[in-house]
Design a protein that fits this description.
The protein is an alpha/beta fold. The protein is built from ten helices and seven strands. The longest helix is centred in the middle third of the chain and has 27 residues.
């Protein structure tokens, strides 16, 4: 489990631009895993829509079904919004560590990547949902393309369960930490299979990665004067709280969301409409 490298991010953006969604970096959704041996005292808390105890997995997947983000362990009584507000999916963006993504749609420039999501997710600048009851032909065309591209994460869930019967069937473990380790291990092995099946990793790339790893290991570690086991109580050092709030406001900007969605509707129509 790791963040995409610069080359991988460029590949994801290129793939999605060819599909009609420039600036899109994946699809986000949640999956329930039934917890058969949930402690009796917790069953009401973990009961999902079918009245059975479940644990929720939030994931982001790309077109190749690689799972770039996973957040597991929220009780099944929660919905996707409850999971989102606890999830670290936007931590890199909020702390200013995410790589910049600049793109143009319908003649307008945007500087924040987005995910495709279903209708329950909020109208933020980082989410693009479909249109539930499209009336115009261009809206229907956009809804069809958005639904087709958003299926990436649902296909990833299906492949994950098909490969590993342990998460396809109700869990028999009692310890929640064991369930987290099982889910994490299955996702890591799933990504290893996806990487092995891509057939686009050349020998030169492998050798370069091996050489860079050898260089890092051979470089002597720098000595630090900071005493060990020193704790910072309260706000982290060198933390710009005002910048954090500005990034959070930009991430949740409803006007940018509506503008981006309108531009994507026009972009899809111009590219795939009847005139083409």
């Amino acid at each position: 489990m790791r963040n995409p490298t610069t080359d991988e991010l460029a590949r994801i953006l290129h793939q999605n631009e060819l599909r009609g969604f420039p600036g899109m970096i994946g699809s986000i959704d949640c999956m329930h895993w039934e917890w058969k041996n949930c402690p009796t005292a917790w069953k009401a808390q973990y009961a999902g829509r079918n009245k059975k105890a479940t644990l929720i997995l939030e994931a982001v997947a790309d077109q190749d079904l690689w799972i770039w983000h996973s957040f597991f362990g929220i009780p099944g009584s929660c919905n996707d919004l409850n999971v989102l507000y606890r999830s670290p999916v936007f931590d890199e963006v909020l702390h200013g560590r995410a790589p910049p993504v600049n793109f143009t749609v319908n003649g307008h420039e945007y500087n924040m990547a987005y995910y495709l999501a279903d209708g329950i997710y909020p109208k933020w600048a980082t989410f693009v949902q479909g249109i539930t009851t499209p009336q115009l032909q261009k809206d229907k065309l956009f809804a069809d393309h958005q639904a087709a591209a958003r299926k990436d994460v649902e296909r990833a869930f299906g492949v994950l369960q098909a490969r590993f019967a342990i998460i396809r069937k109700p869990s028999l473990a009692y310890d929640e930490d064991i369930l987290r380790d099982i889910m994490k291990a299955c996702i890591i092995m799933h990504n290893m299979i996806v990487e092995d099946e891509r057939h686009n990793y050349t020998r030169a790339e492998v050798l370069r990665a091996f050489y860079e790893e050898e260089q890092q290991e051979s470089t002597p570690a720098s000595t630090s004067t900071t005493p060990p086991f020193e704790f910072n109580v309260g706000r982290p050092t060198n933390f710009d709280f005002n910048a954090f709030l500005q990034r959070k406001a930009s991430l949740r900007d409803r006007e940018i969301h509506l503008s981006l969605k309108r531009d994507l509707v026009e972009h899809i129509w111009q590219r795939y409409g009847p005139r083409n």
